[in-house]
Amino acid sequence: GDADLIALYGSDGATVTFDKLAEEYDAWWAPSHNTKGLNARLGFWRDLYGTDRIVEIGAGSIRAALEKYQATHAPASTNRLRSCLSSIFSYAIKQKGYITSNPVRQVPSLTEDNKRKRYLSDDERMAVIVACKASDWEKLYLLVLLALTTGARLNEILWLRWSDIDFSNRTAIIHKTKNGDPRTLTLPKNAIDELQKHRQIGSGLVFPGRRKFDQPFEFRRHWNKALEDAGIEDFRYHDLRHSAASYLAMSGASLIEIAEVLGHKSLETTKRYSHLSVEHKKKLTDRVLGELDL
Fold first, then answer.
1. Which of 122, 266, 142, 260 is nearest to 197 (CA)?
2. Residue 212 CA to chain centroid, in angstroms?
C-alpha cells in the first residue's frame, strides 16, 4: 500500500520486481518441500505481475485476478492459487524484509463447495451448443464438445496436442493429469468428426494462442459471451465436466464406470453423482420389475 511505498522508498524492497521475488522464493522453498503444482501457480502470478514492483501490487488487482480465475475453476483450486501468492508475500516480509504487509490478507479465501452439482439440462445444452457454433472463435464449439463428450478437465483439453490424438482408434492420450497419471480419453464419433475439420499435422496444440502458439488460447471472453447469448446463469466451464458425469449417471452408468471416464482415483469424489444413478435405477425398476404380474 501507500505506507509501504513511502516507508520503503529508496530501499531494496522498493525496486524488487515480482519476477525476482518469485525466483528467490522458489529457490528457498523447493529444496525441502513437495513442489507439485507450485510451478503452475508461480507461473500464473509471474505471467500476471512479472516486472511489476512488489510494493505496487495491491489487493484490488489480486482480487480481480482471483475472480477471473474462479470463473473456470473450483473454489479449492482458487484458494490454492491465493495461498501460493500469500506465501510468496509472507516470504518477502519475514525472510527478506522487502515489505511490511501482505496484500493477499485483504482478499478472503472462498468457501469450498467442491461437491457442486450444476449441470446443463437438455434445453440448456442445446442453447449453449447453438451459441458456441455462432461464436467469433471457430473452435469454441470443439472445446465445449470435447468437455461434454469426454468429461475431461479444462487443462487436459487446452494442452491437448494433435500428436496425442489417434484418429483411427478414436482415443487421445492425456500425459499430465491432475492426479499425475497419464490416461486415455475415448472420443465419440461426433468429437472425432469435429476434430477432423480442424486437424493439423505435427505436435502443435489443438487450441493454440493467437500469438503464443505454445500456450493455450485465451477462450474465456468467447465462452462468457456464449453463455450470455444462451441465457445460461450460474454455470462455469468446469460444470461441463459435471454435465458429462451426470448424463452418464442418468443413463445407468455405475460409479466405477463414471470414475473411469473422469479419471477419479477415488470413488468418494464420484459419489456426488450417486443420487442420479439411484433415480435412474428407481425408474428402471418401476418400469420393468414393478410391472411384473406377481
1. 142
2. 20
Q: Which of 8, 42, 46, 11 is nearest to 28 (CA)?
A: 42
Range 158-179 average pLDDT? 89
CATH 1.10.8.60 fits 122-286, yes or no: no
CA distances from 232 to 147, 168, 226 (A): 17, 36, 9
Joined together, the cell numbers standing for residue 282 give: 428407481
Query: What pLDDT is stored for residue 177 in this prediction?
Result: 72
How far apart (Å, rounded) are the C-alpha atoms in residues 106 and 96?
21
Crossing angle of helices 59-70 and 75-91, rounded to 10°: 150
Number of residues that this document lists for the chain: 294
| Mean of pLDDT values over 234-253 | 85
The residues, any chain, with a CB within 8 Å of residue 68's CB and separated by 6 or more, are: 220
CA dihedral 148, 153, 154, 155 (to 10 degrees): -150
**The 183-186 sheet, strands edge to edge:** 165-166, 171-174, 183-186
The structural domains of the chain, with segments of one domain joined by +, span: 2-106, 122-286
Q: Which of the two residues, 254 and 276, has the higher pLDDT score?
A: 254
Output the pLDDT for position 2: 45
Residue type, position 257, single letter: E
For the chain, helix (H) and strand (E) counts, in that order, are 15, 3
Residues 41-91 have pLDDT tens digits of 899 999 999 999 999 999 999 999 999 998 877 787 888 899 999 999 999
pLDDT category at 212 given cuts 50, 70, 90 is confident
CA distance 82 to 106: 11
Q: How would CATH label the architecture of 2-106? A: Orthogonal Bundle (1.10)
